GS catalytic domain-containing protein
Amino acid sequence: MSKIGVNLDSYSKGVFGLGQHELDVKYAEILEMADRHVVYKQCLKELADATGVSVTFMAKPDAAQPGSSCHIHLSLWKDGHNIFADKHALGFTNDEFRWFLGGWMKHTPELMVFYAPNVNSYKRYSAGSWAPTQIAWSRDNRTAPFRILGSGKSLQIECRLPGANCNVYLAFAAALASGLDGIRNKIEPPPSLEGNIYFAKDLLTVP
C-alpha cells in the first residue's frame, strides 16, 4: 500500500518577524496531517481569544514585516519505505524522486490558487523577504521554492510557496496530484540552482 508522509518535527520557535512564530506539527499521513494542521490553528485562535490577545494566519499582515508561510514537506512511502530514499537521489538516479519533483514544479503555475488563495497571499511574494519569487529547486536553500532536505529515509521535498492562509487540504491535494502526475508521465525537473535564487535569470516567476 502506498502512502504519503508529511515530514515535520513538532515544536515552536520565534522567527524573524515581530511576534512571528514557526509552528511545526508532527508528521503523519497526508489527510491526518491536514486535520492536525487545522485543529492546531483553531486551538491557537481559541486560546488567544481566551487570553485577550489575537493571532493571525494572514500571509502578509504587515508590508514591512516578513510574511507567514505554510511550508509543505512531502515524501512518498510504499510498503513502509520512503521511495525517495535512494543514496543517489540528489544525483537523480531515483526516478520517482526526480519525476515527483518535476511534476510538482511543472504544475505550480496553474495550481497557485491552491497555495495562494486570495489577494493578501500574493503580497507575500517579495524578493529578499524569505518568500520565493521564482520557480526553482535547490539543496537546502531557503531562497528556492522547492528545497531538498534530509537523506536516506528522511529525504523529502519542501515546498515554500503556500502562505499561512492557504486551505491546507487543497494545498496538499495540489501537491500530491502534481507529483503523482509527474511520476505517471515521467516529467523531468529543470537543473538545480545554487546561490541566491532571487538573483537568478530567465526563470518562471510566481504570479
About this structure: The chain has a mean pLDDT of 87.
